[in-house]
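As a next step, the fold was encoded as tokens, giving this record:
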Amino acid sequence: MDEKKDVRDIQQTIIGNTPIKEKASEEEFFNVIRIVAPGTNMRTALDGVLKAGKGALIAVESDWLPQMCDGGFRLNSKFTPQKLIELSKMDGAIVLSRDMKRILSANVLLTPDSKTPTNETGTRHKSGERAARQAGTLVIAVSERRNEITLYYKNIRYHLADSKELLRKANEHIQMLEKQRELFDRAVTKLTQFELRNYPSLSKAIHVIQKGITIQKISADLKKYIVELGKEGTLLKTRLKEIISDVEKETDLVIKDYTKLDLKKSKPLLHDLSYEDLLDKGNIWTIMGYESLVQTEPIKGWRILSKTNMLEQDIAAIVRAAGSLGKAIYSNIEFHKNIIGEEKSKAFKEEIENLKMNF
């Protein structure tokens, strides 16, 4: 995504008529990160302020920002990194237009409501976080003392790391993902072997779910680093797509097969578990409606049947008619003819037999 489109996204998606105290969505957060990625004019300006040994407070215009701005002077000048670096020598905040193409004002005193909660300690950072929450906008604090850049957007506080640190963290996450993907594939293979022999295993299903959700959580963290890296993260983005390919789909089908509730109820609860909580199988089987690892009910077999070339509606028809994976894959062809017709039944039985042989 190019910088110009990101600016439009900022203007149209996240800086518009935003109610105070509204939480930021993931899409909004990524759009903000893209604006300050290495190689953008804004990141050049922010890095320049740090190199000059100065601090700055930069706020993007919104409907609610003017009421907390006091003093300063009007510029309405085209934004350039050099201008912002020079203006950072003043004590007050710098206000940018909604599209971040113009510097509207400088040396402005931001006066947000002091009752707005903040975990910050410094005056500049407290003011930045409160203004971002109250005005529903983006505020950037550059600290010469801490030598760091902090983004505030709605309820989000995010510290920008330098490119070298980001690359190091991103590569560590890639290595973790590769290892977890290897463990995930092994767990899926074992579960498939058991299920194709009509021995569903809740324990092995939970192992797949553990690894699948862990991969998705790690990849979510990595995506933030990749977005922040901008063009420097292109190769990492490609590698990430390769590693996580089909993980979410496979994990969802396991949940769908084994949960006593349903996928829509179980999935968000499972994803809310921390890394530590995921290690406890008891947390997983409880969320899926079990009191222990003892499984007495057959599974329907959505995952195994989805490994064939059957259309989703045909798989659903077989699941409804069979009621269990065992009956779905071990019944004779006459059973399937009555559900999906003769031609499809032959193809289905052949694919199932090939699966059994391969596993």
